[in-house]
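Recap for those who missed Tuesday's class. We walked through two folding examples back to back. For each one, the amino acid string is listed first and its predicted structure tokens come directly after. Nothing is annotated here on purpose, so try labeling regions yourself before you check the end of the notes.
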Amino acid sequence: MPTYDAALTLPLAQADCMAVCLRAVDGLGWLLQEQSMCHLRCREANWIGFHWPVRVVVITEPEGDTTTHLRLHGDVFGLGPIAARAVRQQTEKLRGEIEQVALQWSPVGSPKNHERRATPAGRIRIGRRAVRREAPGPAGTRPPVPPGS
């Protein structure tokens, strides 16, 4: 079974890193299989090729209050150079997506800095700014709530 390991350090707290990883997995359209406070497991949702879907485990390790080290371990069922190349490419693709999301990451309303409370008009107040909640979608479904909301 081919495997590939990658590592990355982000200047974010562990909770923010997990939110960044979740957004990166969602951005790639991958399936989230398991999640906890310090790791997540995901796999490719739509794969085309001569191999099984690549699975990646992301483990976060805090290095102080504002820095987190991420370890990515990818694997795929199968043998040979095609499967080995696929696991390397997909693990690096997830790593790159995490880096891109982390560059754009700005947590809104961190509990340390802002007070959050709901107002009667269906708005969420963050500090002095009010943000309108999204209306329910078709058939009573609600859009996904971004992490930290």
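Example two. Treat it independently of the first, because the proteins are unrelated.
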Amino acid sequence: LGKIGEAQVFNIAHNSITDEMRARAYLEPQLVGYAIEKQAGRWWTLDRFYSFSSPLIHEDEGSYQSFFPGMKSSMDASREVKREMVEPLATFVRDGRRHYVGIYASLGTTEDNYFQHLYVCDAAGNILYTDTLLKQANTDVVLGEDVQEKMYYTAKQTARYVFQPAVSSDGTVYYGTIDYEAKNIEVRKRTFLVYRNRPDGPDLAHLIDLEKQVQYTPVAIGCNPGQQGWATIPTVTFVDEKGKRRKAIARDLGRAEYLVRIFRQQYRDIDRKLSRRRSPLPESVDEMRDSLLRVETVGCPYVISLSGPKGILRSFDYPSGDKVLCARVLALRENEGQIVVRVDLETYAEILLFDTEGSFLNRFTFNTQDYQKRKDIVVSRTGKPLIELDHESGDDGTFLKWIAVEYNVEYND
């Protein structure tokens, strides 16, 4: 699993580095990757022949860190490579969340272009981003000419080749392209935007007053056969225009036909892989596997589904241990093409941003208090930044605006 910042030249045929890798692969075949830096740990797979869809246990010196269930299928299966063909490439942590990167690449000489597909997943296995990079560009070259037959003999030759991307510890993707015809090498990087806040003056007061009247009761969804897969809207009450408090129905919780529901999804293959004992894992990792079997949300996590005018657009899983209490659409930002979803969990609350087709755009955590103490309000209107009335800093509340910026770039107005 990738690391940027250190490099060492070695002979790939015989070298102490490759010897060590070969020994690890033979003695510890379930070890997918390990990091050199301290407090990073090792990643163990539950599959003998692993891919990016294989569950991983992350531990550091015998201490459990996290569980990755593997890349989940997207709603549009026609656009994705088979999960079993995607290989793990890297892992990184951004804003306290661990992410995983997988890659699928094709090579050949029959087509003009071959591509490599990059997949970025969160800790729950949701595909957040997909990226398509050129892998190989071929061109026709003349090998010879038959003057009498007026015929040219040609063959495909690689004109450009893109190396396998490398991923930094913060998620920036670097890749190099070698152009054989121009005789040069070019290195590029791709990064993602993140949301950052800063103090702001009072704004969108009318929307904030409306949000202050909203209350919810935590949903209670089991994973028994009768409830598993059954989606429900959260129990929310609000004060209507007549000043009366009433229970919200689906029409009240939706925005322009966009609506969020909550359910539990059973992944029996995860339970099966956790319970089997054929994989040669270290004893400490085996104990972690046994513990994970007893966590109900590992094989049956909480899921939210986003629906719109065209039906269900996508589902979005939450990691093991997370319990979704309420989820609802706050706004449809028409100018930006964004659907703003607020999700309240037991120990934190976050904002999810999707486009109108259901593709994930971004997310940020705006509160880390227990849900019973949580008072923070987030409102949105098209053409304006997301506004938060933050009560974590004090009872009176502080107005914050959230803006998308490039990661590791200081946010200034």
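Answers for example two:
The mean pLDDT is 84.
The CA atoms of residues 389 and 399 lie 5 Å apart.
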